[in-house]
Amino acid sequence: MAEHPRYVPAPTGRSTAAESGAILAGILLLMSSIMNIFQGISAIAKDDIYATTSKYLVEIDLTTWGWVHLVLGLAGVVAALGILVHAAWAQVVGIVVAGLAIVTSFAFLPHYPLWAVLIIAFNVFVIWALSVQLRD
């Protein structure tokens, strides 16, 4: 009986840590983008809200904020799915989307500090992991 050749994946030149980090980055970007979509939909459903903190009184137009998050979330889902199937364009798009998500999270740092810091940390990791993979 002839022995079947074993499957050996083709070498990609990427380190295992970079490849694993990119997969985790794709998953984290997908989760963060889905949350952006949900936040966007819920914000579009309302008109205006006044959020107060100890030093701030900020009027936030939830409809505009919702559309920004909805579009950013949809772009993030497309980029995350592209990252998970190893599309080269998706890495750059993922870095851009994660960077924009950091900026939008900074805007709400005074109002929702724990959530904003968590989303910022996710997106910093996504940018780092995708940058390492691009370098390799």
Please compute the radius of gyration using only Cα atoms. 19 Å
- Please mark out the parts with pLDDT under 50 across 5 or more consecutive residues, or reply none: none
Mean pLDDT figure: 80
Counted beta strands: 2
Biggest beta sheet summary: 2 strands, antiparallel
H/E series:
HEEHHH
Give the % helix: 55-70%
The end-to-end span amounts to 42 Å
Derived structural class: mainly alpha
How much strand content do the residues show? 5-15%
Enumerate how many helices there are, as a single number: 4
Query: Order of strands across the biggest sheet?
Result: 1-2
Specify the overall morphology. Answer: elongated
How many domains is the backbone divided into?
A: 1
